[in-house]
Amino acid sequence: MTHNKERRENYSTLVIHSTDNSFGFGYRKNNNLESDEFFIKKFDNDLCNTLINDFSKFISIENLQKVRKISVSIGPANFNASRLVVVLARTISQQIHCPLDGFSSFKIMAKRIATKNKIFRNKQSFWIYKKLKRKGFIAGKYEICHKAQQHTDLIIRETVLPKIIQEFESKELFFEANYEDKDDLAELLDLSNKNFLNENVKSWQKVLPLYPISPIN
């Protein structure tokens, strides 16, 4: 019991995130927002060669040993970037025996989008989408879970994991996906710490990239 309490009171959280053209890392000590550290970088075709080097520059071995929870964005985003950041997160989780969970990139931005568009009413739902180069959209659906007076109180549930849809019904709310590197890393840190009770050290086996479409679309 004492060991578990010590782990909860002295821990750090690591998150890894990717978008259509960037990736980043976030690190927080003891869920203290003032301790947040971020690394954000635009990528090109050499991401597979630079990702691990950039990660090793971002976090020291000493700080990595203090990590008790890892979270990663699983997409939808750049196909190769999603695959690479999930592989990195799974590998680290397995090696340091640390729980891992994954969140869709739309879930990560949902609170920010709801706040910007003043969606605070309990049970109100909305879609977040990306238009495909061909016909249709990738879209996920989100719902406000309780009545909130301030955006900091918002709890948002992902009711439909991002998938391909052909069109929206006219009566539904829908907003285009908008990646914000630093804000999304900070939100991912928040989500990770709220879900900190998940202490399954083999949870990395269940975290997979989200591929709604083929890599050529």
Features:
alpha/beta; Nucleotidyltransferase, domain 5; 5-stranded mixed beta sheet; 31% helix; 6 helices; 2 domains; disordered N terminus; globular; 9 strands
Structural summary, described in words:
The chain is α/β, with parallel strands linked by helices. The protein contains 6 helices and 9 strands. The chain starts with a helix and ends in a 23-residue tail after the last helix.
The total strand number stands at 9
Number of helices: 6
Percent helix, as a range, is 25-40%
Q: Largest beta sheet, briefly?
A: 5 strands, mixed
Which fold name corresponds to the CATH topology of the largest domain?
Nucleotidyltransferase, domain 5
In CATH, the homologous superfamily of the largest domain goes by the name ATPase, nucleotide binding domain
Topology of helices and strands:
Blueprint (H helix, E strand, L loop, with lengths): L1 H8 L2 E7 L3 E8 L7 E6 L4 H12 L2 H4 L2 E7 L5 H18 L3 E4 L1 H12 L8 E7 L5 E8 L11 E10 L8 E3 L4 H14 L23
Parallel strand pairs: 1-4, 4-5, 6-9
Antiparallel strand pairs: 1-2, 2-3, 6-7, 7-8
Helix pairs in contact: 2-4, 5-6
Care to give the gist of this entry?
With 217 residues, the protein is an alpha/beta fold.
